[in-house]
Structures are given as structure tokens and as C-alpha cells.
Design a protein that fits this description.
heterodimer, A: alpha+beta, 7-stranded mixed β-sheet, 25 strands, B: mainly alpha, 3-stranded antiparallel β-sheet, 16 helices, 3 strands
């Protein structure tokens, strides 16, 4: 026995004697621990072997593959948005450019569980937006990835806000909740990153409009590509989340303006947060090209100012509630648009960083009178007497009249084919009548009765649609093909159209009054200011129906031309020289002869302007009666035409009082004339 | 009172070497895994772990000095304590990520399931050693399984499926070294497989779903982690990438899977992946060798023990460590389900560290008492 070396009882204590007390088994054999240990050792050897060989496979045989995967993990490809190209006028004046901005986004994965709602509340306070709006942005972002197909094949989203809060639906991506935040917000969030886990600020390019609201309707705006656009051929190769041009030039020339996004390979952690800002590789973004437009900022500014002037002129005698207008300035030789104005207008900057609900409501409410509509191409109305130029060309070319044909105007007219008793009476704008006039005189004085007679001649040739065909040849009734979306085709009424358009038998019939009305641009005829400008350009240039366009060329950062934008070639309409001479003479006299409807405006003007007034009666749904729309269609210089200018003042009264003086302001800009204040007694029509 | 010369002469130094190696290795790796986790406190987890090691060492020395015979007297007290703490955690514990596994003691967090393993090893081992005469009886097998199942059930409720399974494996291992007939294990295995198949395949056909399909999928996600690459499968994939990318000698400070947070639970359940990524096949192998050494020494002590209590205890400890090591490492290398079992001596966690150090103390106590007298030495030859 040795001493007791350790604490505790007798170290020699063995197990109690193994006596069972059972007769059949009085003493049992202690089990062999050694055998059982051997079994476990064997098992351990097998298990260690399995682990060892698995490690061998993973680390030695496949090691390099996993290194590649680990690198793939840590390096995230981040899209580097290419700066979008500028849009400039023909002289290089900037219409649209970029400025640096800040977007705020949230990374759901990095928001601690259960804190999302509270964080959104706080963030909403900082961003001065409703928490509901932030939630909506997040939901909208997540929705596409949560679509599930039912048994019957319909796709529905299983997304609920509860699931987002519970972390069942989450994401690594930065979900942008507000764009274009102020510098103050940016620095606040940067200083308080710890209070806003998962919230990040990001640099972004934003559109900026150095000319203010100039050409707002032509430029368009930017927005994230939507589901329909993704399917569109125009946006082939674009990915969800891409920012694309919406409407206007931004839309049409998106492919040139957008450039090529780059890719930065940056090291990120498991939550997608960048570890360092220096990229470790990737591809540089290629900035977008500059779009040079046919616009001229001076002409554009003048056109927009002209509309405002025209409207205030219409307001002068208190009779007309003018509240809208359109102006088009076209180069008659090639269809280049130097100016295209629409009134009312708005600040395109409201779209930057996403239009606010308040702004949108303001712009779309009725009293705003649709400032986002591009009236020169999308507002089609009766064109009134400006159509007489087309009627004149048609009548001469079809042989209904000659330049010497005279008609007597007693102040009103009834169709010779009208069998009603009493027949429908069409009034001339001049109650007292014009006496006997030839064609030039009729254009000069805008005699309606003369053209009623002509309309009757067209009606008399049953089965022929000669006048309608001529209107179409001049480009009415179908889109001109201008290079921005939103164009309306307008309408040239024909017997066939009446038949299919109207419902009652009496309305379906093409009556003498239809031809009479059409001859003076009334009735069911509808054309846009741009279509009218193209028609007058065709008269001016000898029958070329040009394709109006705004895109001139695409140039790169160094100013080198990348692509000259060629519109569709003009369509040639055969008009004899004698016809052109007569009609041009009439349009010249109208602006210069003492009896001419716009002579008071252009008689003593420095440049010879040929032009025709129009007072179109347009049905007004609000007031339930016809109101006068003031038109003026013109070209100049008369002897060697370069520009066609059309002005429409909605509810503006007579073309001579509102539209013609406005047109003159535009010519001032085109020819560099200091016109001064317009004085002169306007005449009717 | 204590013969320190005899004490030091009869300690199992290879066991100490294995234990010390594992702890030093583990604490070092916790440092590398967590140094970026808390801004300005790169040593936070290391310090916490070292405090546990210090407390564990003291406890282990005390355990090695005490004659383990005394636990036999308090076996029911120890068992009651084990059940009490795993029941208490359910209402008292704090909820972390949907699980209630810890009781906050103010200065530290206490993990009852880790302590329960120690208490259950001592009490169930004593229960068996006291009933050698009933060896072969089916009743003993059933009672021991029930004794283990009660605390395991509460642990499962936390929920902590991993620790519950460790408790059951510990009980089975002690039954095994007790000498339970092979036929019992055969019946248990057959019953288990049948129950599994019935619950999984037959009952759903009859319209009864004991286990939801997604739970089964989650358990077996390791077979094809790509199926659930955003959920549990994500962890497995990231872990395998970490292990694999370690290659032969490891990525050292370039271990991006760890430093960029791609590895979940990098200082607890998935620390083997951290070790493998940083130190490669060589570093992982060193760890395996240390575990092999530890298990060998534990099993050797089971053979040497002067009495059946010592054998059952040492054998149970050895098998438990083997089980935990295999399941944990297996999980990180994609050959075992993700169950959340920590790596003994390595994973961060104070209660488990103290419990395992006490296990080492117990092994030393058994070793000391087996080698210190000629009589007990004789048992080696049996």
C-alpha cells in the first residue's frame, strides 16, 4: 500500500462484488472494455479517414476551383453608369446636360432584423417623404423577383410587407428609395451611417436643363425602363433597371445618348458592401454621344415668346379665352425644325430624380391645360382658311378653275347641289361680301364664298375624292414621320371615312356641305400645326413634302461627327409651275396687298413673308359651342423661301389678330430683325 | 494532503498536450475569425474565451484531484440539476436569433445544454456502474435512454437539435461501454430506421405529417446545397468554398471568405472552415491529429480505468468528442447535415469550454487512480 496521494476515499476501491443473487447467474463476467474500445477505435479510424479524404478532395484536388469561387464571391461587378450625352442646338448651345447628384438607397440584408420599420420612419423624416412611399419603392423593387405561377398559369406575387419585415424576403442589392437628394441630406446620412444600418448614398448623374423650360416637350425625360419597354424592339439589349429616355429626343436617340455602361470589379463583403472604393479591375464606362439638334435656341425662344404674345393679343379685347398654342419653324428645303413651341409649358426638371406626386398632380390637373402635351405634333384641329392654299392648288391642278376664274361673293353661299328648302347657308367672314374676285384676290382677302364655289365643283365630280387626295398628298391625314414620339395623324374626311365613322344613315352620307366645308378647312378636317407647316413648305419649295426632324447629327466628346442623322427623303408632289405661281402670288398678296388679311402685320416688314390667316371653328366640349382657333401659316422670304412658320393660338380668335403678329416675332428671330412693337390695324379672318 | 509528486508523475501528458494544442489553436483562430467583427475591440472574443479557459483549468484541476467515486453518491442530484437547468433556460433564457439557449448571468452567458452534458455523463455513468449486475437487462437500456431523452427533449425545444443529439449519443456510448448486448443496439438501430421511414414516407401517404418536407429538405441540404443556395445551402456552399480555397497551405491573411463575412458563424459552428481557409490542408490535418490524439488517450483511459464507472465515463467522453468533431467538420465540408454542433475546445463558447476542460480533469482523475496503485495498474492486463 502506498500513501493516499489524492483527495477522496480509498483509491483502491473496486467495483462492488458482482453478485446478482440470481441462481442461474450468480456472478457475471465484467464486460471486456478493451473489445468495445477497439470497436470505437475502428469506427474513429473510418470517420477520420472519411474526413481526411474529403479534405484531400476539396483542398488538394479542387483547391484552385474554390479559390476562383472565393474570388468570385468577394469581387462584385458593379455597373458604372456611363454619363449620358448632352443635347445641344444647331449652334452648340446646351439644351440638356448632366449634373452630379446623390441617390439614397437601402440594402435590406444589412438592416438588423426587426428594425426595418423604425429605420424607414427615421429615414422618411430625413428625406422628407412619406414612409409609405419608401415602402412602396422597396416593394416595387422586390416584386418582379417574387412572382409565382399558379396551377392555372397566372403569375402572382407572394410579396407582402410582413415578409419583408420578417426577413423572409430580403436582398443584397441597393434599392434606391430617393434620387437627387440635397447636399445637406447627403452629408447628414454620411455622418450618421451608424444610425442607419443598410442605408447608403450613391453618386448619380442627373439631367439638367440650362435653358430652363425651353423645349420641354421636345426633350423628354429619363426613367427606369418598364416591362413594356423591355419587350420593345427599340430597347433591345437593355436590362431591367436601366435608365432610358422616355418621350421626346431622349427616347428616340437613347442608343446614341446613353453611351456604354462600364463595370467595376470591387471587393465586397457578404452583404454586398464595398470594402474599398478602388476597383480592382473592370471596364471603363464610355460616355454617351452628344445629340446636335436642328433647333436654334434663339428661334425656339422666340417661338415660345411668340405664343405668349399671341395669347395676350387674343386676350386684348376680352373676347377670347386663349390658353394654349403651338408654333412650328421648319426649314422648307430639308425639313429641319428650328423651333417648335408648345404652350402651356413646364419645367422638365420636375422629372429629375423621379417626379413627385405633387408635381405630377399639378401638371395633370385640368386647369393646367396639359403642359406635357407637345401640341405642334399631337394637337390636330380644323385649320380654317389656311387650307385654302391646298384647295387652290387642287382646284387648279384638277382643272376646276383657272387663275382667271372669277366668282361673285354676296356674303353668303348655298350649294348648288343642296336640295333642301331652304338650302343650308354658308357665310363668308365678310358679311357685306367681297364682290367679284379672281383666285389671287380670293386668297388675298380669304374670301370664303369663292372657295365654297370651288368646293361645290369638287362635289360635283361625283365619285372623285380629288380634294381629299390633294390634302393627303400635302401630308395631312397621316403622320409626318418626325423623329419624336407622340405624333397624331389627324384626319382628312372622305366619303369612305364618313361611312365607317358615323352611325346614323343621314350622317354617313357625304353631303355638298362636306365638300364646301373642306374647301375652307372646316368641317371634319383635322391637321396638326406641323402637318400644316409641311404643306406650306411644299408650296414654298415647289412640291417637296419633307420629313420634319429634330436630330441633326451625333458627335463624340471630341466634337467629331459620329453619324449624320438623315431623315427619310422628301416625297415629290407634281404641281405645275403655273399653279405654284398663282398660289404663291395669292399668299404673298395676302400679306402685302392693302386688302390682304395679314397685310397690316407684314406689309412693311423687312423680309417678304407669304402667309395665310385662318380662323377655325373648333367644337369646345367644355362650353358646348364652337370657339375660334387662330392660325397663321406662312413662309419667307417669298422669292426664295427658306422657312415655313405656323402658329396656332387655341381659342385665340382671328388668325390676323393673334397668330400673325406672333409669327412676325418668330421671323424677327430668324432674320435678325429688330421688329419693335407691332402696330397696325388687323383685319378679320 | 495531496501527494503532488505522485500526482504529476501519473498525469496523462499526451492528453494534456492534445488539449493544450487544441485550445491554443482554437483561441488563435478565434482571433483571426473575429478581429474585424467589433470595431475597436479585435480581442473581445479572445479575451472572453481565455477567461473561460482559465476558469476551466481551475475546475479541471479540482476534478482531477477529486476521486470521481463521489459523483456516484450524488448521481440523482446531478441528474436533477441537469434537467433543472435545461428546463429553466426555456422561461429564463434570452432569445438570440429565434433560439433560447443561454441564460444571462449578468457578467457572462451560461449555456445550460453544455453543462447538462457534463452532469448527465456523471449521473448516467454512475447509474450504469451501480447496476453491473443487471448487465444485459433490457430495462437498463430503456431506462438510460429515457433518462437521457428527458433533458434532450427540453434542449430540442430551445431549439438546439445539435446538443440534443449529442446528449443521446453520449447515453448510447455509455450504454455501449457498460456492456449492453449487441442485440440491443441492433434493435435500436432497426427501430430508429423504421421510425424515420414511417415518419417520412408512410405517414405522409396516410395524410399525417409529423415532419414537414421542408424540415427534411433542410436536414439533407448538404447532399445538394445548390437547391437552397439562399438559405441553409448558402452556408454549406460558402463553407465548402472556404475549406476548398485553403488548398494545401492556406490563404493566410487573404482568407476572404472569413474576413468578408461570407462564412456564417465563423467563430462558432463554422470555425473549422476558418481554420481550413487560413491554414489549408496542412493546418486542418494538424487539427485532426490533435483530435485523434485526444480520442485515443480518452479511450485508452477507458481501458485502464480501475472500475467500470471510470471506463464508462472515459469511453463516453471519447465517443462524444469523436461524434462532435465528425459531425461539425462533416457539416463544414458538406458531408453531414447542418446541425449546429460546436467543435470541442475550438468553437467560441465559455460554458462548453469549461465543461470540456472538466471532462479532461475527469479523464485525468480516472487515469491517476488507474496508474497510481499496483493493483489498479494490473487492470490494464485484464
Amino acid at each position: 500500500m502506498t500513501c493516499v496521494p489524492l483527495l477522496g476515499r480509498d483509491p483502491d476501491r473496486r467495483d462492488r462484488p458482482i453478485r446478482t443473487g440470481r441462481r442461474d447467474k450468480p456472478i457475471i463476467q465484467l464486460p471486456s472494455v478493451a473489445l468495445r474500445v477497439a470497436v470505437i477505435l475502428g469506427l474513429a479510424a473510418v470517420l477520420f479517414g472519411v474526413v481526411f479524404f474529403r479534405l484531400w478532395f476539396l483542398q488538394i484536388l479542387s483547391g484552385q476551383e474554390f479559390v476562383a469561387q472565393a474570388n468570385d464571391n468577394r469581387l462584385s461587378s458593379v455597373k458604372v453608369v456611363a454619363p449620358r450625352g448632352n443635347i445641344v442646338d444647331r449652334k452648340g448651345e446646351v439644351l440638356v446636360e448632366n449634373r452630379a447628384g446623390t441617390a439614397v438607397g437601402i440594402r435590406l440584408m444589412a438592416v438588423p432584423q426587426g428594425q426595418l420599420d423604425a429605420e424607414i420612419e427615421r429615414l422618411a423624416g430625413v428625406l422628407k417623404m412619406r414612409p409609405g412611399k419608401i415602402r412602396k419603392e422597396i416593394m416595387d423593387y422586390l416584386r418582379p423577383s417574387t412572382m409565382e405561377q399558379d396551377e392555372d398559369g397566372t403569375w402572382t406575387s407572394f410579396l407582402t410587407w410582413r415578409k419583408v419585415l420578417d426577413g423572409d424576403i430580403t436582398g443584397l442589392d441597393l434599392i434606391v428609395v430617393k434620387e437627387d437628394v440635397s447636399k445637406g441630406v447627403r452629408s447628414y446620412l454620411k455622418e450618421h451611417t451608424l444610425d442607419f444600418p443598410g442605408v447608403e448614398v450613391r453618386d448619380q448623374y442627373l439631367r439638367s436643363y440650362p435653358q430652363g423650360d425651353m423645349a420641354a416637350q421636345l426633350l423628354g425625360h429619363l426613367g427606369e425602363i418598364d416591362a413594356d419597354e423591355l419587350k420593345d424592339q427599340h430597347f433591345k439589349g437593355y436590362a431591367a433597371g436601366d435608365v432610358v429616355g422616355k418621350d421626346g429626343l431622349e427616347d428616340t436617340y437613347d442608343a446614341w445618348l446613353r453611351g456604354r455602361d462600364g463595370v467595376a470589379r470591387i471587393e465586397v463583403d457578404a452583404y454586398g458592401r464595398p470594402k474599398q472604393t478602388e476597383p480592382v479591375g473592370g471596364r471603363m464606362a464610355e460616355p454617351g454621344h452628344t445629340l446636335v439638334t436642328t433647333l436654334d435656341v434663339d428661334v425656339q425662344a422666340a417661338a415660345e415668346e411668340a405664343l405668349r404674345t399671341g395669347i395676350s393679343l387674343a386676350h386684348k379685347d376680352g373676347k377670347y379665352a386663349a390658353n394654349g398654342g403651338a408654333a412650328v419653324v421648319l426649314d422648307v428645303r430639308n425639313g429641319e425644325i428650328l423651333g417648335m413651341a408648345s404652350y402651356p409649358t413646364y419645367d422638365p426638371g420636375v422629372w429629375v430624380g423621379g417626379i413627385s406626386t405633387k408635381d405630377y398632380e399639378q401638371l395633370t390637373r385640368k386647369s393646367a391645360n396639359n403642359p406635357m402635351i407637345n401640341r405642334p405634333i399631337s394637337e390636330t384641329k380644323a385649320v380654317g382658311s389656311t387650307f385654302k392654299a391646298v384647295t387652290a392648288v387642287a382646284a387648279l391642278e384638277e382643272g376646276h378653275i383657272s387663275s382667271g376664274t372669277g366668282y361673285f361673293c354676296p356674303g353668303s353661299y348655298s350649294s348648288m347641289y343642296d336640295n333642301a328648302d331652304p338650302p343650308q347657308k354658308f357665310k363668308c367672314w365678310s358679311d357685306g361680301g367681297h364682290g367679284t374676285l379672281d383666285l389671287v384676290g380670293a386668297i388675298t382677302q380669304s374670301c370664303d364664298v369663292y372657295f365654297y364655289n370651288v368646293g361645290d365643283r369638287f362635289y360635283g365630280r361625283q365619285g372623285s375624292e380629288a380634294l381629299e387626295d390633294w390634302a393627303k398628298r400635302f401630308g395631312m391625314g397621316k403622320v409626318t414621320g418626325i423623329d419624336i414620339p407622340g405624333e397624331s395623324a389627324g384626319r382628312v374626311p372622305t366619303p369612305g371615312w364618313k361611312k365607317s365613322y358615323f352611325e346614323t344613315e343621314i350622317d354617313k352620307i357625304w353631303k355638298p356641305g362636306d365638300s364646301v366645308n373642306l374647301s375652307v378647312g372646316q368641317g371634319d378636317l383635322e391637321a396638326s400645326p406641323l402637318q400644316l407647316a409641311v404643306s406650306y413648305a411644299a408650296v414654298a419649295n415647289g412640291g417637296k413634302v419633307v420629313t420634319p426632324h429634330l436630330g441633326l447629327e451625333v458627335v463624340d466628346a471630341a466634337g467629331q461627327t459620329v453619324r449624320t442623322l438623315e431623315p427619310a427623303p422628301p416625297r415629290k408632289v407634281d404641281i405645275s409651275q403655273s399653279t405654284l405661281d398663282v398660289v404663291r402670288r395669292g399668299l404673298y398678296e395676302a400679306a402685302h396687298n392693302g386688302a390682304g388679311t395679314s397685310a397690316a402685320v407684314f406689309q412693311n416688314y423687312d423680309v417678304a413673308v407669304s402667309g395665310k390667316t385662318g380662323t377655325a371653328e373648333v367644337w369646345d366640349d367644355t362650353s358646348k359651342h364652337y370657339v375660334d382657333y387662330a392660325w397663321y401659316a406662312s413662309y419667307a422670304p417669298s422669292e426664295d423661301p427658306r422657312y415655313a412658320v405656323v402658329v396656332l393660338i387655341e381659342k385665340g380668335g382671328h388668325g390676323s389678330t393673334a397668330a400673325a403678329p406672333a409669327t412676325r416675332l418668330i421671323y424677327d428671330a430668324l432674320f435678325g430683325i429688330d421688329g419693335g412693337a407691332f402696330t397696325g390695324a388687323p383685319r378679320g379672318d | 494532503m495531496v501527494d503532488w509528486r505522485a500526482y504529476f508523475r501519473h498525469l496523462d501528458y499526451l492528453l494534456i498536450l492534445a488539449t493544450a494544442g487544441l485550445i491554443v489553436y482554437g483561441v488563435t483562430m478565434i482571433y483571426f475569425a473575429t478581429r474585424h467583427d467589433i470595431d475597436g475591440a479585435p480581442l473581445y472574443y479572445v479575451r472572453q474565451q481565455l477567461i473561460a479557459v482559465a476558469m476551466g483549468l481551475v475546475a479541471a484541476i479540482v476534478a482531477s484531484l477529486l476521486d470521481y467515486e463521489i459523483y456516484r453518491r450524488f448521481q440523482w442530484l446531478l441528474y436533477a440539476a441537469a434537467v433543472l437547468i435545461v428546463v429553466a433556460v426555456l422561461p429564463l433564457g434570452e432569445n438570440v436569433n429565434g433560439a433560447t439557449r443561454w441564460i444571462d448571468l449578468g457578467f457572462t452567458r451560461f449555456q445550460p445544454s453544455a453543462a447538462a452534458m457534463l452532469l448527465l455523463a456523471l449521473s448516467i455513468g454512475a447509474f450504469l456502474a451501480d447496476r453491473m449486475e443487471l448487465l444485459g437487462s433490457k430495462r437498463i437500456t430503456v431506462i438510460v435512454l429515457v433518462l437521457a431523452a428527458v433533458p434532450a427533449f427540453f434542449v430540442y425545444q430551445e431549439p438546439d437539435f445539435g446538443s440534443a443529439s449529442v446528449i443521446m449519443v453520449l447515453a448510447l456510448a455509455m450504454l455501449f461501454f457498460y456492456g449492453t448486448p449487441w442485440t440491443h443496439f441492433a434493435v435500436l438501430t432497426a427501430t430508429g430506421v423504421t421510425a424515420f421511414v414511417v415518419a417520412l414516407k408512410v405517414l405522409p401517404l396516410a395524410g399525417v405529417e409529423l415532419i414537414k418536407q421542408y424540415q427534411v429538405d433542410r436536414l439533407f441540404v448538404f447532399i445538394n446545397p445548390g437547391h437552397d443556395s439562399a438559405g441553409t445551402g448558402y452556408n454549406v456552399i460558402q463553407s465548402m468554398i472556404a475549406v476548398g480555397s485553403g488548398a494545401l497551405t492556406g490563404r493566410g491573411d487573404q482568407a476572404t471568405q472569413t474576413t468578408l463575412d461570407f462564412l456564417p458563424e465563423h467563430h462558432t459552428d463554422f470555425i473549422f472552415a476558418v481554420i481550413s481557409e487560413r491554414n489549408g490542408f496542412v493546418g486542418a490535418s494538424i487539427l485532426l491529429v490533435l483530435y485523434a490524439l485526444f480520442i485515443w488517450r480518452a479511450l485508452r483511459i477507458a481501458v485502464m480505468a480501475r472500475d467500470m464507472y471510470g471506463s464508462i465515463l472515459a469511453g463516453g467522453i471519447g465517443v462524444m468528442v469523436l461524434f462532435q468533431v465528425f459531425v461539425n467538420i462533416g457539416m463544414t465540408i458538406g458531408i453531414m447535415p447542418v446541425t449546429g454542433i460546436p467543435l470541442p475546445f475550438i468553437s467560441y463558447g465559455g460554458t462548453a469550454m469549461i465543461a470540456f476542460l472538466i471532462f479532461v480533469g475527469l479523464l485525468q482523475a480516472i487515469h491517476l487512480r488507474a496508474t497510481i496503485t499496483p493493483e489498479s495498474r494490473g487492470r490494464l492486463g485484464q
